[in-house]
Design goal:
Length: about 300
């Protein structure tokens, strides 16, 4: 089981090298991440975008472009369509956002002719390596679905379980989170958390253990579970997957972790035919590299 991002890199070292298609690659942080990913054996890249600017930026960071395929397309929208079509046609294994804006990028993902749409909801998954926790922690959804319905939450769980299994977690424990760990009819998220648990027990959500509602402390802190007398729960501070009730809770926790703790993390968009790396321009190069590693591990699992 992969407990760190270094473990993911070791896992990738035994797999065929994946290829990422980058939309509007004329962006220094993206090219830096792509260069590191290639050096570490995570993935090769096809760079789609303004070739002149790509070469200019690469020269400024001493990046050797001789081993890369470059497709010249200065128009941002066309660059995204050409880049996503490479994944659609099987010429690349995963898709990454470069300089283009998120709206244009997602439009290409959902393009009916050359995109990666599956007809299912898209969902964002973040994977954290945190001090004091002896495993990778999977968070969903912190950036994409504002107010997930019960159906959305089922999809979020299924996507995240798929990622967790790709990372070597055989039977991940899933915690649908709420402010409390008991069902309260006046708190709809607790009712839905209970329903997710029952769906898992009925075999409607497979390949994992679901136990909710759970407060955050009971989900990730064994001592808290012990002190609260919750040792009879399926999850007693050892959750692998945290399912947030809405984007506000998820995003606040995500940003609190990123800005207040020393962590490593990567992000991936699921619900598509291939893994999609959708990082923020403010994300560090390390986050972009970790996200590529995560996407490569998922792409390898999808190829099986």
């Amino acid at each position: 089981m992969s407990k760190t991002f270094d473990d993911l890199l070791k896992k990738l070292s035994t797999c065929p090298t994946k290829k990422v298609s980058v939309a509007a690659a004329q962006d220094q942080p993206i090219l830096e991440a792509v260069a590191i990913a290639k050096k570490q054996g995570i993935a090769d890249a096809i760079l789609v975008g303004d070739e002149g600017k790509i070469r200019e930026i690469a020269s400024g960071i001493d990046m050797d472009l001789s081993g890369y395929e470059i497709i010249n397309e200065p128009d941002l929208e066309q660059a995204a369509l050409k880049a996503v079509s490479l994944v659609h046609d099987g010429k690349a294994d995963m898709y990454m956002k470069g300089l283009t804006d998120t709206k244009t990028f997602l439009k290409s993902v959902l393009n009916k002719e050359v995109g990666l749409r599956t007809g299912q909801a898209l969902s964002h998954v973040c994977v954290f390596e945190l001090p004091g926790i002896d495993r990778l922690l999977f968070l969903t959804d912190v950036a994409f679905i504002p107010y997930p319905t019960l159906e959305d939450k089922v999809a979020m769980i299924n996507y995240t379980v798929e990622i967790a299994k790709a990372c070597g977690v055989e039977n991940p424990k899933v915690a649908p989170l709420a402010a409390v760990e008991v069902v309260n009819p006046k708190m709809q998220v607790t009712v839905e958390a209970e329903e997710l648990t029952k769906m898992n027990e009925r075999g409607e959500i497979k390949g994992c253990i679901v136990d909710g509602p759970l407060s955050l402390d009971l989900a990730i802190d064994p001592e808290a579970a012990k002190h609260k007398g919750a040792t009879g729960r399926k999850i007693v501070g050892d959750a692998d997957i945290l399912v947030f009730p809405d984007i506000h809770a998820g995003n606040l926790v995500y940003k609190a972790i990123v800005h207040l703790a020393t962590v490593r993390n990567g992000n991936i968009l699921m619900g598509t035919k291939a893994p999609v790396v959708l990082t923020s321009r403010s994300d560090s190069t390390e986050i972009k590299v970790n996200s590529l590693a995560l996407a490569a591990v998922v792409a390898e699992e999808m190829s099986k």
